[in-house]
């Protein structure tokens, strides 16, 4: 009887093949590079482009590059007056090596270089513990880094007191200037931005209007016009016969610009704080100052740390614009060195710009990584 | 009543010392603010008057009508060194708008592609797009401009090489040199207006047809072949009219002159450097915005649209993209504004934009207050118009809730 029941299978099917493992190397390649025919075409095109460009790039940057030499002849081909074979093309790192001190410190007197170096050591020594969350005494550290250090650095770099030789700001240059301008911008813009943001959210119409007009006016125009304003109009606005330092003018311009942007970032944080927090602070009988410093601002600023760091990164990149009002920050001094007769070669501009770009990139990338780290760390509190 | 009694013993508000009266305090603060602002402005104005008097200069915008006396390399409107300062500023404004518009279009396209590429399942493409974003986001735009201008475009073949090239290949019409890209310029003949009209009619007809096709799809479920008919209306129809009118378009070729190429159309290296740098720099930011926008739309949305039977293209176009746009538009607006403001970096390579022309006038005439006010006025207006337009677009795209 049992044989006549046709719908019961009497023999097993062949087992299906195991699905393609995507943990093996081939499986990974199939899944991530050749999942469909469109993917395959894209992967092959990308691969071809990489194979075409990367060897040439590496060759230009490292293999064919000139690493040592005293002047331009080291980086010139035979028909240009040097000794390299005709048709040579590569980076001229000898030029960057020769000009390195200038790129870092500008024309700062060479026998006084210990002063900026000391400032760098102090800065790094205070910054690193400040950035590591586990190190205690953040308050003292912040005080030293943000208030004491700028004052000490000011006297140390400018001189003229305690028997230090006076070094005019026109001699400053290079990465030093880039860092000073962005650091001052950061130190000024944070408190100024908080004040402007609070002013913008104030209920007093006059204060509010003044803050809105300032913020929107500055944010509506390019940094160049603000820098022109600081460098051309500021001397007109002050007492006749004043001779306000050019470097100081640039600092003022950058600080004004950064404050307006910082104000908007902080306003975003203030708006994100629930109304209950304000009301709770009022109910506790705190006055405006205490309400803001103890309840609202700590939460608001924590919320917008990524935005604040983004503003810092933007400011760091924007300091390169002081090149246009003929100051010598890193980019300005690299660009100025292209016209230096000792190193005029066809490859000098490209080499110098790649070097400057690399330095800027390291700083900005480091800041953005650090901001991502802080963001992750602060996020943990909200995860259940 | 009982509550009021318990609090103060009467219905009147509690008596507060004048020092802690909020209304009085706020008035005092505001009066102090006004006094500070007014005295600062008065102080500055007083100094300006004295400083100008010492330098024997006068204030006012009358100088705008005097002769400029300098040449501008690239100008879309008639301009010579005999034109007025006002005309020069117009040239600068137009050049600013041209480079900003071109930059915005390119940055949006590149940013969109790179942003989608970063989300691709293809490992290689995603990595390449990440590298692009991380490189360009972290380098100053000014450096990128110099990179193109001094590092790349300056190394292109010189004009002598081009002359030689023309001698060898008399048929060549398109040249790339370190003085820019030369190409034939279109010369519009008589009757080209008819072709233009035909094109406009084609566009209007295509829009009308699309509206009709959508209505028909809703009514019957059958979608007419919109793409092909629209292509025909927009491309083939004007082309047909063009041929019928006897091809009223000729080309003006660039030919070697004594020192430079004559005729044709040239795109200068200044424009190219600025345009490439602004587009590539801003594209890296737009890519991140696009990526955040697409990731902000939950996966359930695309799965739901597949369940409804939409094809992947339709799901992206009709379901995912409209929702992603809501997240994308506000930060995209600020990137567009940044690009417009960054176009002022033109002054670094000498592309005659508003700031470069204004800077030249400032150096010539010394009218710093006037020039800087003009700059600020124009840039603030451009910013306001752009944000108004984007706010309108944003409101149109925003979620319509019940």
UniProtKB/TrEMBL annotation, chain A:
Coiled coil: none annotated. Residues 175-366 form the ABC transmembrane type-1 domain. Gene3D superfamilies: MetI-like (1.10.3720.10). Belongs to the binding-protein-dependent transport system permease family. HisMQ subfamily. The chain crosses the membrane at residues 41-62, 113-132, 144-164, 170-198, 210-235, 247-266, 350-374. It is a multi-pass membrane protein. It is found in: Cell inner membrane; Cell membrane. PROSITE patterns: ABC_TM1. It comes from the Bacteria. Keywords: Cell membrane, Membrane, Transmembrane, Transmembrane helix, Transport. This is Amino acid ABC transporter permease.
UniProtKB/TrEMBL annotation, chain B:
Coiled coil: none annotated. The chain crosses the membrane at residues 27-45, 93-117, 138-159, 192-215, 227-251, 271-294, 345-362, 374-393. It comes from the Bacteria. Keywords: Amino-acid transport, Cell membrane, Membrane, Transmembrane, Transmembrane helix, Transport. It is a multi-pass membrane protein. Residues 93-390 form the ABC transmembrane type-1 domain. The keyword Transport applies. Its main location: membrane. It is found in: Cell inner membrane; Cell membrane. Belongs to the binding-protein-dependent transport system permease family. HisMQ subfamily. This is Amino acid ABC transporter permease. It comes from Shinella lacus.
